[in-house]
Every structure is written in C-alpha cells, then in structure tokens.
Amino acid sequence: MTCRRFRAALFAGTAALLIAAAGTSARAQWIVFDPTNYAQNVMTAARELSQVNNEIQMLENQATSLLNQARNLASLPYSSLASLQQQIAQTQQLLGQAQRIAYSVSAIDQAFTQTYPQAYLSSTSSQQLLADAQTRWQNALAGFQDAMRVQAGVVTNLDNTHAQISALVSSSQAATGALQATQSGNQLVALQTTQLSDLTAIMASIARAQSLDAARRLETQVQAQAQTKAFLNYGAGYQPGSAQMFH
Prior knowledge:
Blueprint: H1 2-32, H2 35-73, H3 81-96, H4 105-115, H5 126-173, H6 178-232
C-alpha cells in the first residue's frame, strides 16, 4: 500500500514538473518571437535598405555626371590648324613673290614717281620716253602673270580644302561632348576663313594687274601728249641772215 502511494506521488510530481517545463518553454518562445518587436525590426531594416539604395542611386548619378563632364571636356582628336596655316602661308608666299612692283605702299609710290609721272618735261629725250613705256608694259605683264600664279595656287589648295572639310564633318558627327562639337565647328569656321583669305588674295592680285594695265594706258596718253608737243615745238623756224659768198 505504501509502495502504491509512493508511485502515485512520484507520478504526480513528474507530471507537475512536465507541466511546469512546458509552461516555461511556452513563455520563453513568446518572448523571443514577439510580433511587435519583429515588425519594428523589419520596418527599420526596410528603411535602412531604402536609404542604402538611395545612396547607391546618388553615387550612380554622380558617376554619370562625371562621365558626361569628361565627355564634354574631351578635346577633339583631329585638328586642321596646321594644314590651314600651311595653306595660308603658301598663298602669302605667292603674294610676296610679286614681280617688279611689290604689295607695298612705299614701293608703289616710288614706282609711280619714277615711271608713271603726271607729265613729262619738254626736255625729256625720246630714249627716256621709250624706256619708261617699256618698263610700264613689263609691269603690266608681270601683274597679270602674278595674278595667274595666285589663282593657280588657290586652285591647288582646293584638294586640301576638300580633304579638311570631309575630316571635320566626320569629326563633328562623331563628337561625344560639347567641347568636341564646339571645336569641330570652330575649325569649320577657320576653314571658311581660309577660303575667304584665298579669295581675297585672288581679288587683290587681279585688281593689281588691272591697275597696272590701266596706269600703263593712262601713261601712254601722257607720253603721247609729250611726244606731240615735242614734235610741234620745232623752234622759231627759218630766219634770214646775211651770207658772204666771195672774199
């Protein structure tokens, strides 16, 4: 009887311990997996993740901006400056090779003082008149020859101009930034300026030749007047005088 009572008490105590342990475990699990705390942690993590994503987007935008700035500041890899300068130098060299009367105010003034007088003195010899006329003819001939040489030089530059236009247009179409587009546009303007300088050289050379020829024709009239005046000025004519025939 006593043994039965002991077993019953032992069983009851064991059951009580199991119930107490089960209750403690349930309370521990309720504290660790608190839904309110878990929801707050999830919201905090979401906010932090959103902030990180925003910072990443800002860094990407800054990187894109830096790349665009680098493209805008990138220099055009092609430059036609050296070729254009050489072309202008060649045209200037042709102008500098002008024969007889150069493109110089002092040289022109000196030549017109010596060879293109406004009037000839009556004492001017026929040899001097002939020499001046020949000099003026040579000046006019040299002027036309110089004009044709300048024209030939400009025509030669057309091939180089065509090549530069093609290269600059290609560079402009392939420009990756504002600076490259601006530089290609500036070089196209420089090319147009070079063409205008060639055209100015042609017009100057033609005008020079025409001016020399016009001056020659005007001076021919002055010389003809001087020769006519010298021809008509034959002196006092025949004057009678005493003659002694026999001694």
